[in-house]
Amino acid sequence: MRIFVIGAGVSSLAFCSFLDNKNITVLDSNKDSGRKLLATGNGRCNFTNLKLSYENFYSQEKDFVNYSLDNFSNNDLLEYFEYLGIEWTNLPSGRCYPKTMSSQTVKDALMMRANENAKFIFDQKVLDIDFNKKLIITEKNKYKYDLLVIASGGKTLKNSGSDGSIFKILEKHTKIEDMTFGITNFKAKNPLSKKAKGVKVNAKASLKVDGKFIKSSTDDVIFQTYGLTGTAILDLSNLISLALKDGKKVSLDIDFYPEYKKDGLLKKLEEKSKRFPNRNIEELLIGNLDKKLIIDILKRIKINPGKKNISRNDLEKISNILKNLPFDIMDINDKNNAQVTLGGVSCKEIDKKTMKSLKIKDCYFIGEVMDVAGDCGGYNIQWAFSSAKTASEDIRRLNV
C-alpha cells in the first residue's frame, strides 16, 4: 500500500519516525526537510513543555486535542527523544530543549529515523490533488497513492514552505476555518518613542479584550517603535490575534513591578525621594527604570523630567503608571515572521481519534494544517508529534 505524505516538516518527520513501513513517500516543495523546525525557539528548538495543558491550545472544535495529547503526552515525547538519543534539558518556565540547544540536533535525529521508513522527494510543489483518482499532481510529476497524509503546515514562515497554497486545493473538499497569525508581535496605537526602541524589561503584561481582563504573562517585554514584542507578549499573542480577528478592542497593560502593590511601590519611591531631596524626577527614577524609558513614561503622565520639589501626587502618578502602562493594540506587526497559523482545516471534519478526514476518503491531517494552534512554549511541536502518533497508530491498525 502506497502512503504519501505532503510536507517534510516536523509533523511529517514524526509520522515517518513512528510508522515502520517501507512504502512511505514524502513530497516537499523545499530542497530539504524541517526548515521551520530549524527556526523554532530562536534556533534552539523548544519542543515541549513540562506544564502542558489542554488550555494551551486553540481550536473551533472544543476538546479536539485532548485524545491525542493524552495518547502521546509531553512525558511520552521526552521518552521518545531519549529513545532517539536526544538528551534534553528544561528551563524553570517548563520549556524543554535539546541539551545542545540546537534545532539542528532534533532535525538530524528525526531525519535519520524517518529515512529508515520513508523516501523523500524534494523540490515537488503540489499543484493539485485528485481525491477521487487518488492522484497528486506536482510541478514535475504525478503520484498515485492509497493513503494520503497532509502535513503541509499553515501559512506562516512562507520561506519554510508553509505558504498556505494547500488550502486552495482543500477548500473544495473540506471546511477551512478562517485563518490569522499567532505567536507574533503587535502594533500599538500609542507606542513609545525611538529612544525606547529595543529596551527589554522583565514585566507583567495583562491582556484586556473589550475592557475585560483575559490573561497575564510575566516575562520579557521589549518596546519597539511599532509597539510591543518579547516573550510575555508572545505568550499572549494567540489570544490577541483571535480577538483582533473578531474586531474586538484589545489592550495590554505593562506592570514593571508585579512584585509590589501600588502602595508598596509608592512607599519605596517616597523613601527614595526623601533620601535624595536634591534630585529631579528623571534623576530620581534612575535605578527604577531603564534611562531610555524615563522620558517616555514621564511624558505619558505630563510631568517635566527636570522637575524638583517632587510632590506626593507626582510620586502617585509615577507609581500608578509603573504598575499600569497601557497600550492600545491595533494589528499584527509582522505577519511574515509569525510562528503559527490560527485556523485551518476544520477539526469538526476530522476524527479526533484517528486524524482521518470525515470528508475526504483515505486522507489524514497532522500538525499545523488543522485548526489547532498552541501557545508559545513548545506546544506546537508537541501537537505535531501527538497528532502524528494518532494518525500513525490508526494506519498501523490497517495492517499496511
TrEMBL record:
Ranges of residues in domain RsdA/BaiN/AoA(So)-like Rossmann fold-like: 2-393
Cofactor(s) essential for the protein: FAD
UniProt entry tagged with the keyword Zinc: no
SUPFAM superfamilies reported for this sequence: FAD/NAD(P)-binding domain (SSF51905), HI0933 insert domain-like (SSF160996)
Keywords per UniProt: FAD, Flavoprotein
InterPro entries according to UniProt: BaiN-like, BaiN-like_dom_sf, FAD/NAD-bd_sf, RsdA/BaiN/AoA(So)-like_dom, RsdA/BaiN/AoA(So)_Rossmann
Gene3D superfamilies in UniProt: FAD/NAD(P)-binding domain, HI0933 insert domain-like, Translation factors
The RsdA/BaiN/AoA(So)-like insert domain, residue ranges: 186-340
Record-linked PANTHER family: OS12G0638800 PROTEIN
Protein name, entry field: Aminoacetone oxidase family FAD-binding enzyme
